[in-house]
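residues and backbone:
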Amino acid sequence: MVGPRRLNEPRRVAVDADSAGAPRAVASVAVEAVREEWLVEDRWWTPRPLRRHYFELAMADGRALTVFRDPGGGRWYRQRA
């Protein structure tokens, strides 16, 4: 039996970013436009604060996609809204 799983859990994804850090391609699919960009800083009072740089993207294949980068670790993740 499988236990409960978290909804909308972030998943690692390969992102090619430009020199400013904006995604150019996600999983080898070109980014047509960055629709929105924002920074989330939460739990700053805890030993493990949360800091994420989000991008809402329009992809060349017609999808809308949200990705974020952990500035501390530099890893990229996709997350469904």
Notes: The chain has a mean pLDDT of 89. Strands lie at 11-12, 15-17, 23-26, 29-42, 50-59, 64-69, 76-78.
